[in-house]
Amino acid sequence: MSSEHKDIHAEGEVHEETMTRGKIINVLVILLAITTIEFIIALYLVPKGFLTYHSANPIYIVLTLAKAFYIVAYFMHLKFEKVALAYAILVPILFIIGLILVLTNESHHWIDLRL
Amino acid sequence: MNTAVSQIDEVKTTPWAGGKSPFSVEYGKLMMWFFLLSDAFTFSSLLISYGALRFSSNAWPAPDKVFQSVPGMIEHGAPLVFVGIMTLILILSSVTMVLAVEAGHRNSRKEVAWWMVATIIGGAMFLGCQALEWQHLHSEGFWWGSIPNAEKLKEFFAEGGLVSTTYSQQFANLFFTITGFHGFHVFSGVIINIIILLNVLAGTYDKRGSYLMIEKVGLYWHFVDLVWVFVFTFFYLV
Fold first, then answer.
1. Would you call B37 and A64 a contact, using CB atoms and an 8 Å cutoff?
2. Of the candidates B64, B66, B68, which has an alpha carbon nearest to the alpha carbon of residue A47?
3. Which residues of chain B are within 8 Å of residue A74 when distances are taken between CB atoms?
4. Which residues of B, range 84-143, sit inside 8 Å of A by Cβ?
């Protein structure tokens, strides 16, 4: 079974075969750096008034998505899988985005109902 | 005799023509991906409901007031420190998991076993931290269906802002449900990792000739880390 697996990998492999230790450490450094930036924003920039509470939120979300990308692409190896598999997993995420749009819009109406 | 092959009988060789796996992954790994996708939907529903309820509120407990202690060490004035430690533990245990997968590619049983032990310890430490965090919030008065008394509740809201019992209760319910659901995933992950470690030690994957199983549990473990990244942002930062 392992030889079969290797054969499949051998054909049409465009990217590097797998994660090396060096790359794993690189991704770890990136994840820790992003988390550190989030902490600097939350503990320093917002309390000292360099950023308002509301302008910090979009930054948090962008940084969170960046972390999610590195975990899924490198740790979960999706970047090195066939494009078809990546799309099979990522396209259904559109439904989640749809739910976010619908419920954020809806929640604006709930405020009026609650007054 | 006519040996010409009609067009319809020609063997197609495109990736989707059949006869080989178009995704190039083993069955179990593909099913793990599909399971994780469905699990992503479940977590998204919970987190998006949380977002919608919080968006539609006029007062919500401030994260840096609710989460400002390190249980057993610092009582006040250390916002995000404890959850920072928890995040660090989970990211590191994710890294030890990839290192186990990497060692598995080299069929190195001993290395896989050690990295799996490290991953299990990381998971157990995270669960311990979460138990402390829950215990702390519970001692403050938050739980499913209960909130601190009106006097104490003021401490958890921004100064001079509105104080709402309704939204405090929603916060408590959502916090314990979502971190509880995530913690249950971590717990299952630790149990699965222990089973895999026992198999590694018993030499099951050497006999099988492949450490692919490590990759499959690795996917699950990274997903748990991935969910925590979102829980961390939406409960502790935003």
1. no
2. B64
3. 98
4. 84, 87-88, 91-92, 94-95, 97-99, 101-102, 105
Nearest CA in chain A to B33: A89
CB atoms within 10 A of CB B233: 20
Q: Is residue B47 part of a domain?
A: yes
Q: Which residues pair with B236 in a beta bridge?
A: none
Residue B142 lies in a domain: yes
CB B227, CB B126: distance < 8 Å:
no
Q: Evaluate whether residue B3 is within a structural domain.
A: no
Question: Are B212 and A5 within 8 A, CB to CB?
Answer: yes
In whole angstroms, what is the distance from residue B207 CA to residue B9 CA? 41
Please indicate if any CB of chain A lies within 8 Å of the CB of B184.
no
Going by C-alpha positions, the residue among A28, A30, A8 that lies closest to residue A17 is A8
Residue of B41, B56, B57 best to disrupt the A interface, most CBs of A under 10 A: B56
Residue of A60, A96, A104 lying closest to B55 (CB–CB): A104
Q: What is the pTM of this model?
A: 0.88
State the Rg of chain B over Cα: 24
Domain limits for position B130 = 24-237
Do the interacting molecules here have an ipTM over 0.90? no
CB pairs under 8 A between A and B: 142
**For chain B, what is the domain count?**
1
pLDDT digits (tens, 9 = 90+) for B60-105: 999 888 998 888 778 787 888 899 999 999 999 999 999 999 999 9
pLDDT by residue (tens digit) across B16-32?
Answer: 887 778 888 899 999 99
Q: CATH number, domain at B189?
A: 1.20.120.80
Give the Cα separation of B76 and B58 in Å (integer): 26
Q: Is B88 inside any structural domain?
A: yes
